[in-house]
Amino acid sequence: MKRSFFRKIGGYAFAIVFIITGWWLTAVVVNSPALPTPPATFDVLAENMSVLVPFFWTSAYRVVVSLVIGTALAVPIAQLCARSRVLDTLFAPVLYLLYPIPKVVLLPILLFLFGLADAPKIVLISLTVFFQVLVAVRDAVRAVPESALVSIRSLGGSAFDEYRHVILPATMPAVFTSLRIGVGTAIAVLFIAEAMAGSTGLGYFIMQSWSMVNYPRMFAGIIAMALLGVILYAVFDLAERLLTKWR
Questions:
Q1: Do residues 185 and 126 make contact, with C-beta atoms less than 8 angstroms apart?
Q2: What is the pTM of this model?
Q3: Are the C-beta atoms of 128 and 181 separated by less than 8 Å?
Q4: For 101-121, what is each residue's pLDDT tens digit?
Q5: Is residue 143 a contact partner of residue 166, using CB atoms and an 8 Å limit?
Q6: 3-state secondary structure string, the chain?
Q7: CA-to-CA distance for 43 and 85, rounded, in angstroms?
Q8: What are 34-64's pLDDT values in tens digits?
């Protein structure tokens, strides 16, 4: 176990060195103010830490709340649709029509309805996460073999036992997979929403730095937003390992 732990740490260390080296070499080759070197960026990152930290927590709050809302709504609806032929027949066409639509196009409407505060951003990201989790969980539940449910019933199990011992375990991996995938999408939507509307968050910080032609400051914001995505991805990966040990 210790060997596995140190191997994983070594892998992450190599990845960090590889990315920074590639970034540094690219900056030297391009030789453009728009692509500062890592040392220049890290200096500015340290200088702006007092500004970045509140913006980081604001963005983190918006993303985490959105992920929770989107998942909490999607999971039960997906399970109901997957287990009910009538509901699936009714709502499957709705899902097929709405899922491919980029949810970010709804931002102007949400801004008009909810203003420039947190609400439109949270609603927008929640919608994006909702459909991603809904599709993944629905397919996972539909893939559960009927024989597994029959086995529970033959042992005298109730509908709750079917859910607890079969459907829920079959759902969990799909939930975490869709969340890990959804983190990147959620961060991208967050950036667009914060860049277009509002005066807080990392997206606003990045675009403000860009408008000031302060590229090291802009890259400092990009690093902070990337760090947010990495932290959330790692949290979901760890949660999946802890909650799906049976795999």
A1: no
A2: 0.85
A3: no
A4: 888 888 889 888 888 788 999
A5: no
A6: CHHHHHHHHHHHHHHHHHHHHHHHHHHHHHCCCCCCCHHHHHHHHHHCHHHHHHHHHHHHHHHHHHHHHHHHHHHHHHHHHHHCHHHHHHHHHHHHHHCCCCHHHHHHHHHHHHCCCHHHHHHHHHHHHHHHHHHHHHHHHHCCCHHHHHHHHHCCCCHHHHHHHHHHHHHHHHHHHHHHHHHHHHHHHHHHHHHHCCCCCHHHHHHHHHHCCCHHHHHHHHHHHHHHHHHHHHHHHHHHHHHCCCC
A7: 59
A8: 888 888 888 888 988 988 999 999 999 999 9
**pLDDT tens-digit series, residues 142-160:** 777 766 666 666 766 666 6
How far is the C-alpha of 37 from the C-alpha of 149, rounded, in Å? 58
| Residue 171 in this model has a pLDDT that exceeds 60 | yes
User: Is the Cβ–Cβ distance between 78 and 141 less than 8 Å?
Assistant: yes
CATH number for the domain whose boundaries are 37-243: 1.10.3720.10
Tally Cβ neighbours within 10 Å of residue 25: 11
Q: Which of 48-57, 74-83, 163-172 has the highest mean pLDDT?
A: 48-57
- The token duo for 60 is 């983190």
Q: At what angle do helices 85-98 and 49-83 cross, to 10 degrees?
A: 140
CA dist., res. 165 & res. 246, Å (int): 12
